[in-house]
Amino acid sequence: METGNKWNSIKLILREWGLIFGIIIVIIVAAFVNSQFLSGENFANILRAISTVGIASIGMAMVVIGGTMDLSIGSTISLVGVVAMMVMNSPIGMNPASSDLAALLTVILGVAIGATVGLINGGILAAVNGRMGESFIFTYAMQIIVGAVAFAIVGGKFQAAKYPDGMFKSLGIGVTPIIILLVIAVTMQILLQKTSFGRSLYFLGANMDAAKMAGIKIKAVRLVSHILCGACAGLTGVLIVSRVNSASTLQGVGYEFDAMTCVAVGGVSLAGGTGSIAKTALGVLVIGVLSTALNVMGVGSNEQLILRGAVIITAVILDGFNKRAKLREVGH
Amino acid sequence: MGKKLNNGIGAAILQQPILALIVLFIIVVGIVNPTFVTIANFKNVLVDASIYGVSALAMTIAIICGEFDLSLSSNFMWSQIFFCYLLNKWGSNALGILAAWLCMMLTCMAFGAINGLIVVKGKVTSFITTLGMMMMMIKGLCLVFTDGQMVSTNNEFVKMMGKGTLLGFSYLTYIFLFMILLAFYVMKYTQFGRNLYATGGNYNAAQLSGINVEFSKFIIFVILGFAAGISGSMFVCLMRAGSVLYGTDLSLTCVAATVIGGTPLSGGKGSVLRTVVGVLVIYVLYKSLAFLGLQGYINTLIKGLALLLVVVFDAYMSKAGKGGIAVGRR
After folding, report:
1. Rg, C-alpha atoms of chain A
2. How confident is the model at residue B181 (pLDDT cuts 50, 70, 90)?
3. From CA B89, how far away is CA B97, in angstroms rounded?
4. CA nearest A148: which of A180, A118, A117?
5. If you average pLDDT over residues B194-201, what whole number do you get?
6. End-to-end alpha-carbon separation of chain A, Å?
7. Do residues B54 and B275 lie in contact, with contact meaning Cβ atoms separated by under 8 Å?
């Protein structure tokens, strides 16, 4: 009896967090191919590399839990990046005396722009009571619009950094992005678990009609979830510019799909209503470790695309099997 | 009598507001730039619309059945690249061209079948399945196959198909017309088509009434692969080249054409003929923007705004609160 319980609990842990073992296997294989992979510096690099897509994925997880998605974050990241670079390359940012102020301004501006795009997305979706399908097509249209706005601002030109070293450059390097990622992850997790907004969001994602019947302000919850997602994308845009010291209208292209990938691999169901920030973080970690490991093993970027696709589909299929197995056990 | 007629026209406009809008748009653009309203220009629009149109028909069938396919663009890329490659290899005689075409179509349908198997047997939502297939696997395959280079062909038969006309219209337009009729007939007058409607409308009810719903969901992905192959070969006829840069917007344009035409994303309703309207609207819009002589990004902005307006309007009209795309809903 005792052992049976123990075995069952191990099985449960495996089901819930099986991806961790996936990461460990990838790390072991990569370490055999190249022992440098195990160095602390490499892990710090991996964490820094995934911090930006991580923040974007956390924002995406918020809307996916609520049963919608946001395809416009890639364009938002480009737009914010372009604007941040304009601020930093303006006289305020160039002057060493006021460049810290400008750095702060870019962060505020970035989050504000992102939140505004989210507000528009969420506002439209709330107005028509949209779900996954509507959000797909609305945010795709927003992706085109926001991308065109970014293009209009700089005319498609690539911008290089002219500003001096300072607070802005330190945002995206060292441990700062990792700390920002952790702070956002913890805040969002608390928001999801400990507040009525979070519980309403899960309810909304699981069953919109029932949530409405239960008296939840579904329009407000939908709106807030999209604003949070947009704000996360805005912050991501600022951090990317700070790290690469350049901005272009193509910087954010594909980020929406990267974020969706991380969210789905982490096991947040695209049907809405389930998942957590911890799971999303795990998905981000899996993708980050995997792509670094493939780089270390010398796999070309084209072949990596194929492998990543296979990994995503396998992860989601296994996740589905687990969920159904769990349901069967509950049924007994 | 006059009132009745007015009501008739009013009702028609309400049913197809997009058509009225597009006629208005054509008139405005025609005033700004009279060369827009020439027959030659409309024939060009038809040829362009034919290529994506074939894929849009299949996308509509998929949406009616409650699924959709993001990997369509990659499948389209693969079909161009592989068709060009095979034509260069075997295209010296008629038999070789036929073999190349069949071989390409088979691979495209096989990709579709893999999507279908993952969705039906793996029980993964079609969004993530086709995302994995699109962003990653098929596109990766195209890149590995071509190393990112363009593949071109100088095959005489393909050149003839792309340039040839019958009664003044391009051959490609006739292929599109044939596909429209085929899709319309299958969806409207066959048991198979009605099963697809039933599966998309209410999965469980369809299953209980004895429809093989798993087969329905599987076969639409094969149809999507087939359409991607046809679209790809039409594109090769026109451009005589294949590359991963052509057709990146295919899947989303097809979804947009379906919605603009008036097929709701909730599944179980709609018609392929409406999508033909949607495709034509999109292409008239794109072409007319080019004729207005605006800056590139303003064109993009207008495209995005138009899409947003149309889908918001559609959502209001169809009371989207009851719908929502049926992706993954079982």
Report:
1. 21
2. very high
3. 9
4. A117
5. 88
6. 17
7. no
- Give the tokens for residue A276: 């957590």
A-interface mutation test, from B135, B141, B145, B254, most A Cβ less than 10 A away? B135
Q: Which residues of A touch B325 (CB under 8 A)?
A: 131-134, 136
Mutate to test the interface with B, among A305, A307, A321, A324 (most CBs of B within 10 A): A305
**Structural tokens at position B280:** 């034509």
Mean of per-residue pLDDT scores for chain A: 85
Each residue of B219-248: pLDDT tens digit? 999 999 999 999 999 999 888 888 888 888
- The answer, as to whether pTM is greater than 0.90, is no
State pLDDT tens for residues A159-185. Answer: 787 777 777 777 877 788 899 999 999
The residues with which A247 forms a beta bridge, in sequence order, are A159
Distances (CA, A) of B183 to A273, B72, B178, B199, B280: 37, 18, 9, 17, 17
Considering only CB atoms, B311 lies closest to which of A137, A149, A307, namely A137
Contact status, residue B320 vs residue A128, Cβ threshold 8 Å = yes
DSSP state at residue B137: I
With beta carbons less than 8 A apart as the criterion, state whether A245 and A160 touch: yes
Judged against a pLDDT cut of 80, whether residue B321 lies above it is answered with no
pLDDT at position A65: 92
How far out from the chain centre does Cα A323 lie? Answer: 23
Task: Report the amino acid identity of residue A241.
Answer: V
Could you tell me how many CB contacts below 8 A there are between chain A and chain B?
A: 159
Stated as kind and residue range, the H or E segment containing A206 is: helix A196-206
- B135 burial (CB, 10 Å; 0-12 / 13-18 / 19+) is buried
β partners of residue B166? B169
Partner residue opposite B123 with nearest CB, options A133, A264, A320:
A320
Amino acid at position B108, single letter: C
Does residue A332 have a pLDDT over 70?
no
Virtual CA dihedral for A62, A64, A66, A71, nearest 10 degrees? 90
Q: Which amino acid is present at A298?
A: G
- A118: pLDDT strictly greater than 90: yes
Give the residue among B217, B222, B225 at the shortest CA–CA distance from B196: B217
Cα–Cα distance measured from residue B150 to residue B135, given in angstroms and rounded to the nearest whole number: 19
| Residue-level pLDDT at A199 | 92
Q: Name the CA dihedral angle for B183, B186, B188, B189, rounded to a multiple of 10 degrees.
A: 150
The pair of three-digit structure tokens given for residue B58, joined into one six-digit string: 């299949």
Would you state the pLDDT for residue B17?
64
**How close A151 gets to chain B, by Cα (Å)?**
6
3-state SS, B275-302, equals: HHHHHHHHHHHHHHHHHHCCCHHHHHHH
- Which residues in chain A have Cβ-Cβ distances shorter than 8 Å to B326? 133
Please tell me what DSSP assigns to residue A97: T
Q: Is B114 or B159 the better-scoring residue by pLDDT?
A: B114
Smallest Cα–Cα separation from A319: which of A274, A272, A265, A271? Answer: A265
DSSP annotation string for A215-231: T--HHHHHHHHHHHHHH
Share of chain B above pLDDT 90, in %: 19
Task: Please tell me the predicted confidence (pLDDT) of residue A15.
Answer: 67
pLDDT, mean over chain B: 81
Most confident of A106-110, A129-133, A139-143: A106-110
The DSSP secondary-structure symbol of B16 reads: S
Residue A159: beta bridge partners?
Answer: A247
